[in-house]
Design brief:
Length: about 60
Amino acid sequence: ERVTVSAGVVAIDRHTFSGTLLDYADQALYASKENGRNQVTFFADMVAAGQTEPQQISTGGIELF
């Protein structure tokens, strides 16, 4: 049985809503999974590469599972 680890990383910014940070980390995590798994993806690198753009979530509505 093979176990892999995929991770999404975002820098914490005290001026950014926590739900937004979780969304950014989630985007990076799914990018890791979609690009072969067993890797770490940084949200800032995705932005720099033009793969996504930061968007603020101002309130509520994030689902954790």
